[in-house]
Amino acid sequence: MGTQATVFNGFKAVTNLLKGMLDELNSGEEYYVLGARYVENLPEQIRYFIKHHQRRVAKGIKLMMLANEDIKPKIIPDTKINSEIKYLPNYLMTDMQIFIYRNKTLLVVWMEEPLAFLIESEVVRKSFQKYFGAFWKIAKK
How far apart are the first and last CA of the chain? Predict the structure, then answer.
């Protein structure tokens, strides 16, 4: 199977993709997030991620996360369970989050109507994994 890319629009579509990621992953597997942040004018995003991390922890899925420095004091407590989190300076961050798991890369742009691009490709996943690794080296705990 070759590379597949699909665009999703809207809060429900994006959160269904994230729910699907947790459904797909098994206990002991992990996923990576680059650019974790909360959007001030999107309170339902925080409500969603509270439930998301409760499900993730209950399933035993590990999280490797690079977050914006400014969310450190506001981070959802369950996010810290079964995870490694480092923080990047805010100047490196955008409104986009990148989720990397299995052979998939999910790019989410958080705005009033969230937009997501799901790319199924081992080559693309490896490329984003390299970016993650480079940023991981310069991030702070």
Answer: 39
Distance, C-alpha 6 to centroid of its chain: 17
pLDDT digits (tens, 9 = 90+) for 21-62: 999 999 999 999 999 877 777 888 989 999 999 999 999 999
N residues, the chain: 141
Question: If we measure between CA atoms, which residue out of 87, 128, 84 comes closest to residue 106?
Answer: 128
Contact 141, 87 (CB under 8 A): yes
Neighbours of 23 (CB within 10 A): 9
List the domains of the chain with CATH numbers. Answer: 4-138 (3.30.870.10)
In DSSP terms, 87 is beta-bridged to: 67, 140
Q: Residue 10 to residues 13, 14, 110, 120: CA-CA distances in angstroms?
A: 5, 6, 10, 20
Q: Is 56 exposed, middle or buried (0-12, 13-18, 19+ CB in 10 A)?
A: buried
In the three-class reduction of DSSP (H, G, I as helix; E, B as strand; rest coil), residue 122 is classed as helix
Instruction: Output DSSP code: residue 43.
Output: H
d(C-alpha 13, C-alpha 59), whole Å:
22
pTM exceeds 0.90 for this model: yes
The predicted pLDDT at position 93 comes to 78
